[in-house]
Write a structure and sequence with these properties.
- This protein is α+β, with helices and mostly antiparallel strands.
- Helices cover about 35% and strands about 20% of the residues.
- The longest helix has 25 residues.
- It is globular and about 65 Å long.
- Helix 1 packs across helix 5.
- The chain has one domain: B-lactam Antibiotic, Isopenicillin N Synthase, Chain (Jelly Rolls, Sandwich).
- Fe (ii) ion (FE2) binds next to loops.
């Protein structure tokens, strides 16, 4: 068996075996895939078309909506530096992004200035965010079940969901990313060679709890540092299974566990380091890469207290338990996030 293969979790399977499977994938590789997410290929193609058209606008137009300290808006080329081991290198990743943030998660409406371009497309943004949230909640229920989180009378499957409030402010961000090709079509092998090891998204872990990502079939490039093989590995494109093909669903979503869920579970669930590099096929074609990502976060005021699960509380000296032992109090999700944003962007709170 290939132990580094990413597990595909069916979000519509509520069995305890499936709950154990998601916990196993999340506590080993930290990267997995979801099917049963309910997105059609048509819906995903529409989002990628919007993304391409948006990033084709002039820099001046995009800069009118430059990113603000609440993490909403446009980040231009080189603005964000994800390279965790080199945070003061003085230049950022060669990519641009647009963040929808400050959501009312009951409606999927982001509170921020909306660029002209997006105004007549906001119903699609809203419905996509709500659908991704539904997938998130299904996964959080499976995780709580698999971790056997203790409630008053038995397992509390809603424990994480209740802490990812729909009606509280959170760091939840829906993000469009564009990585322009570093070479033109027909570039020489020598030119391409220079860029094949370039991190267009620096090696990093994500800040929230769970990250859900759409990647295009012919635009791979995401790589994870496998905690199993101790090597960088490509996140493959896996086509839709027969079961979900017949339901008209698109390929599985790519998923990774992020820092807050790792911290919250005392390191049991793994926030795995990942990066993006241009694959050879894209460099050969001189083609840009796009991805679309939901970074899920708990409500800002959610206290990241040690999770009431025997599996987690037996781990001492790490994450939320360690913080509690040291400070006598737990930090909130908002406090945890601000520390991360401060180091990525040099922001001070
Ligand atoms: O573009 C991708 O595939 C991954 C992006 C990513 O890891 C991030 O923005 O956190
Ligand atoms: Fe990431």
């Amino acid at each position: 068996m290939d132990t580094t293969k990413l597990e595909i979790i069916d979000l519509l399977d509520n069995s305890s075996e499936n709950a154990k499977k998601i916990v196993h994938a999340s506590s080993t590789q930290g990267f997995l895939m979801f099917e049963g997410h309910g997105f059609t290929q048509n819906e995903i193609d529409t989002l990628f078309k919007f993304s391409q058209d948006f990033f084709n606008l002039s820099v001046d137009e995009k800069n009118k909506y430059s990113i603000t300290h609440d993490n909403a808006g446009y980040t231009g080329m080189g603005v964000e530096n994800l390279e965790e081991d080199d945070l003061d290198r003085g230049y950022g990743d060669p990519k641009e992004g647009f963040n929808f943030a400050n959501f009312d998660l009951r409606t999927g409406i982001p509170k921020q200035p909306i660029p002209e371009f997006w105004k007549d497309k906001m119903d699609i943004i809203q419905s996509t965010v709500l659908k991704l949230r539904e997938a998130l909640k299904r996964s959080l229920r499976l995780l709580a079940t698999g971790l056997e989180i203790e409630g008053i009378d038995g397992i509390d499957a809603e424990w994480f969901v209740e802490r990812h409030h729909d009606d509280h402010f959170s760091g939840t961000t829906f993000r469009f990313l564009h990585y322009p090709s570093p070479v033109n079509e027909g570039a020489t092998e020598e030119e391409k060679e220079k860029f094949k090891d370039l991190n267009v998204a620096g090696a990093h872990t994500d800040y929230g709890t769970v990250t859900l990502l759409f990647q295009k079939e012919e635009e791979s490039g995401l790589q994870l540092y496998s905690q199993i093989s101790k090597k960088w590995e490509n996140v493959p494109y896996v086509p839709v299974s027969n079961k979900y093909k017949s339901k008209g669903e698109a390929a599985p979503l790519i998923v990774n566990i992020a820092d807050q869920l790792c911290y919250w579970t005392n390191g049991h669930l793994k926030s795995t380091i990942h990066r993006v590099r241009f694959p050879k096929e894209l460099l050969d074609k001189g083609r840009d890469r796009y991805s679309i990502v939901l970074f899920a976060h708990p409500g800002d005021k959610t206290v990241l207290e040690p999770v009431p699960s025997k599996h987690i509380q037996s781990i001492k000296g790490r994450g939320a338990s360690h913080y509690m032992e040291k400070h006598g109090i737990s930090q909130t999700a908002g406090e945890h996030l601000n520390k991360r944003l401060e180091s990525t962007y040099g922001w001070k709170y």
